[in-house]
Amino acid sequence: LQVLCRYQHIWNIDLRFRPAFLGGIMQATGNKPPAMLPKRGEYILKDIKRMAKYYQVPVRMSADDFQRILRSSTLQAMRFITAIDMTQPQYLEPLSREFWIRFWSQHEDISQPENILAAAGQAGLSSEVAQKLLEMISTPAVKNRLRETTEEAMKYGAFGMPAVVAHFNGEPHLFFGSDRLELLGSVIGE
Length: 190
Fold this sequence. Notes:
The chain has ten helices and two strands; from the N terminus they run αααααααααββα. The chain is mainly alpha-helical. Strands 1-2 form a two-stranded antiparallel ribbon. Strand 1 and strand 2 (about 170-175) form a beta hairpin.
């Protein structure tokens, strides 16, 4: 997310955020988190640290964080982002980035209403608008929209996150994982 936001101006791409629920994707595709395999978990931990340094992105990870991540729910945050997408799409990028920093760097529980409101405020939303959006997250409209965008991601072939769909020369191209950015650049001629 952070690198794509950085590259959108370098590559001159139209970056569009589409909220999708990872838990729904994992369940529907029968996928399992890679950290559930001990050796893969060890490798991923090292790889995340290397990528954080390479891309200069503030990810803080330890072996204990895998359990934190598996126990965490991002559903409320994804519904809040969906409500933003439906009503105030200009805040999608700053809010997504704020949730990302809070989850991956500050290890904050982004499912809690007070943390959602704090992230919204940091992203530039007024407290009144943020509170109204927080009230929207339990509505059928928001739930259905998140379900639709999650299903759309799976139609493109998503089986986990991050999933990036690049529409280039009239064709969609799915890229999974943050280590595929160079391949994305190659496909779009950058």
